[in-house]
Amino acid sequence: MRQVIISLMILFMTTVNACVFADESDQSLELVSNAKIGDSLQRELPAPLYSPLVSMIVDIFLKDCTMAHTSSLQPYVRKVLYKKDGVVEAEVRADKIKQIADLPYVSFINFPRQSVLHTLSAVDEQDLESSRDPKICSFLAERFGPEEQRPPIQGIAGGRDNIVLLDIYISEFNDTNFNDLKPHLKSLRYARDNIVEADVSLLSVPAIKDLSYVSYISLPRLQYRDCEGNGLVQSEAVMKDLMKTCTLHGEGITGKGVSVAVTDSNFFFDDITKVELPSSMDMSLVSSNVYSIKQWHGTACSEIIADVAPGANQLFVDTGSTEMSFIDALENLTRQGKKIDLVSSSMDFPVGMFDGEDDVCLAVRNLTRNGTIWVNAAGNWAQRHWSGNFKDGDGDGINEFSQEDESINITARKGETIEVILSWDDDWEHASEDYDLYVYSPRGGYAQSRNPQTGYFGHSPVETISLDAPVSGVYEIKIRKVNATRDRVLFNLIAPKQDLDEYRVVEGSLGVLSCSNDVITVGALDAVTGELAPYSSRGPTADGRIKPDIVAPTNVTVSSSYPYKFEGTSAAAPHASGCVALLHQKFGNPGCDIKSAIIKGADDFGDLGPDNAYGYGLINASSANCN
Q1: 311 contacts: CB under 8 Å, gap ≥ 6
Q2: Rounded CA separation 262/256 (Å)
Q3: C or N: which end of the chain has fewer Cβ atoms within 10 Å?
Q4: Does a structural domain hold residue 505?
Q5: In sequence order, what are the residues at sequence separation of 6 or more whose Cβ sits closer than 8 angstroms to the Cβ of residue 584?
Q6: 220 Cβ partners below 8 Å, 6+ apart?
Q7: pTM (two decimals)
Q8: Maximum CA extent, the chain
């Protein structure tokens, strides 16, 4: 195994300290306030990227405590603990708190009255360097620093027992150690390759850290869905016949008998959207959780496939939010013994080796080696990506993006989520080249990610910051060398939510899955303008291969996102998947290499021949031929 599963997944990540802000005068950055959420609770809310991983015990004060109101809270809470005198004490996922506050019958939300909250005392940079704990990530270090730098934890009886999804790296994995660890866990999610992913009380972290066989504890790496839009209807790409599918439809080729698995973690649909989905839809492998109205991404992908290949049988596969859940979902798909001809994936991971050999890529290979075709979105990061070697001409330890500039800028409005993900070429199981990441506010404060990279098992070459912009303006991103010995370290930096203001590097802006040679990687061609979407990620891969393989239409209408258009390579991938389903029905026999047929039949765009923007060109279903 060349890369360890650092499962902090999403659609593409590892850990972060994005919740702590400091400046030289030791003043916090201004918080985005909500009058219905207590100040202490707002300060403790995790960064947006991690809020789905954290559960919090809160008191919800109701204006009018009726049976109907308390019942209507159920979709937002994990567990109701107490109900009395208009107050509901419950375990709530952190990303649901603001939604609860918006309910008209909710008056106020805060931590239970008895709890006592504590934050880390301010320490100077030198003290931070000397006290860095190699066994916990930056996110946890800010909550459980060295004993002399943090107040004692109190208020346990009051209910302040936040539950966090964590990855625990075990240096010596055996039954004795595993059984010894279990009592410290709230619930076990996955255990593989010396890594345990579990829901853990923050109060248990110090005890787990002190276990001799525990090497490192971090938040899991998350996955991203490549979606730009916030769509009764048929995709304009089908109506305009941009992929030349009408001829096949006229021949009665609709994808009949072809099984398509749609992998995602958002499958909301209502009565209107359901009309657009295939009647043969299989929901047996989706989450039992209730999806919110904003979680339509996977459903929109399904709509497009149904437009292109209305006869195909679709299976929804919820891959969760982490690397481990993604791999487990694919293994479960295999265990189910279901016939899968094609997988359509519009998500990816932002950190890895980018050569097709990451663990998530190997999980995909386990499917494709048995004949399944995998179609993957290329990513939306061409304008949000920088890559380059660490340079420090003046010797101050800060990377120079140019001879005169030690920062790379992004512009954000107050309240917008800012995410910055930095990775570099180092050992993915025992990273030892140590760098930190900082984001400076227009007011001078900063957020920081200071994960240790000292060679411990579980240390990865990744730093991630996620925060809500406290003010509108220009934010400066800086990279600081802590302890590195190699002269030329190659960095990849992605800001998934905002375009970079400067120093953009469109080359090599692909996601991890889209670098795999076992998938058909799809870039985005705007269905309205006929031009390559500027955000469409481009190759080459780390080992020099051309990607994407093809481009397909985006910027189309689907009922799931209506009245907004569905944009991004997320919309392009299911268009290509629908074409693959048509060709699978048409050619059918195992001797047909459909990927090769699609590449040979594509309409060349851009420079003559294949390139790292359009690949081999726009998919043309009528020209694809297996002869």
Answers
A1: 254, 255, 256, 257, 258, 585
A2: 16
A3: C
A4: no
A5: 255, 258, 341, 342, 373, 594
A6: 6, 7, 8, 9, 53, 165, 166, 167, 197, 321, 322, 323, 324
A7: 0.76
A8: 75
Domain match, 374 and 240 both:
yes
pLDDT given at position 272: 64
Question: How many Cβ atoms sit within 10 Å of the Cβ of residue 275?
Answer: 10
Say what the pLDDT of residue 57 is.
78
Q: What is the pLDDT of residue 563?
A: 67
Let me know if residue 607 belongs to a domain. Answer: no
322: tokens are: 């982490």
Domain that holds residue 441: 384-494
Same domain membership, residue 240 and residue 352: yes
- Cβ-proximal residues to 68 (8 Å cutoff; 6+ apart), any chain: none
For the chain, residues with pLDDT lower than 50 are: 1-32, 113-130, 147-160, 227-232
* Residue pLDDT, tens place only, 350-371: 999 999 999 999 999 999 998 9
- DSSP 8-state assignment for residue 567: -
User: Of the residues 469, 494, 519, which one is the last residue of a structural domain?
Assistant: 494
- Please count the residues of the chain: 627
d(C-alpha 398, C-alpha 407), whole Å: 9
Pair of tokens at residue 583: 């060709």
Closest listed residue to residue 431, CA positions, set 216, 223, 173: 216
Q: Residue 177 contacts by C-beta under 8 Å, 6 or more apart in sequence? A: 170, 211, 213
pLDDT confidence of residue 122: 29
Same domain, 467 and 361: no
Q: Strand, helix or coil at 248?
A: helix
Angle between helices 569-587 and 594-601 (to 10 degrees): 110
Last residue of one domain, picked from the residues 438, 460, 494:
494
Considering the domain architecture, whether residues 282 and 361 belong to the same structural domain is answered as yes
In contact, 407 and 475? CB cutoff 8 Å: no
**Which runs of consecutive H residues, i.e. helices, occur in 263-358?**
271-274, 297-308, 323-336
243 and 372 in a single domain? The answer is yes
Using a 10 angstrom Cβ sphere, with 0-12 exposed, 13-18 middle and 19 or more buried, the burial of residue 157 is: exposed
Give every CB contact of residue 591 below 8 A, 6+ residues apart in sequence: 626
Residue 220 in contact with residue 9, Cβ under 8 Å?
yes
Do 184 and 241 belong to one domain? Answer: no
Tokens of 86: 């208009």
For 116-135, what is each residue's pLDDT tens digit? Answer: 222 222 233 444 444 578 89
Nearest to 342 by CA among 622, 619, 595: 595
How many domains does the structure of the chain reveal? 4
Residue 422 lies in a domain: yes
Task: Judge if 482 and 571 occupy the same domain.
Answer: no
Whether the Cβ atoms of residue 9 and residue 324 lie closer than 8 Å to each other:
yes
Beta strand pairing status for 417-424 and 462-468?
Answer: antiparallel
In degrees and rounded to multiples of 5, residue 619 shows phi and psi of -60, 135
Phi, psi of 598 (to 5 degrees): -65, -45
Provide the pLDDT for residue 28. 34
